[in-house]
Amino acid sequence: MTSKAVEILCSACGADTLLKREPRYDGFKKVGERLLCAACGHEFANLEAVPFKERKTARLFTDADRLPKVDVFEADEKGRNCRHCQYYLVNPFTQRCGRHFHVVQATDVCDAFERKEEAKPSDGGDGRQPPRREDTKDHEEKA
Ligand SMILES: [Zn+2]
Fold this sequence. Notes:
Oligomer: single chain
Bound molecules: zinc ion
Order of helices and strands: EEEEHHEEE
Strand content: 15-25%
């Protein structure tokens, strides 16, 4: 019975969290283990389905995949991506479209795209411009 903490990136809630193991009983007989997300309680069908942190990184993102992505963001400065849209909302866990109220990726392209205006002292637009955050790239990887 070891309960060593295993880091996962939950595929259900996206949290960087721990794998929770609970014994699974058939009557009084222990028949196995349930593998749960410690953050949202999502149950993984088996060990193969568990999004182990290291393994997921290796499987889904290679370094060759990740690094150029930053350049793509830079090059897309004039693009119609959600990250440049006034409806784009970022919080530490997810990115949402404030118009459609669904989760988006920074690189999504949307029919309803409307370019986010730069905050101007004299012309505040709708008056609730978020501060420009050029240092938020950490959050812009796919969750
Ligand atoms: Zn979860």
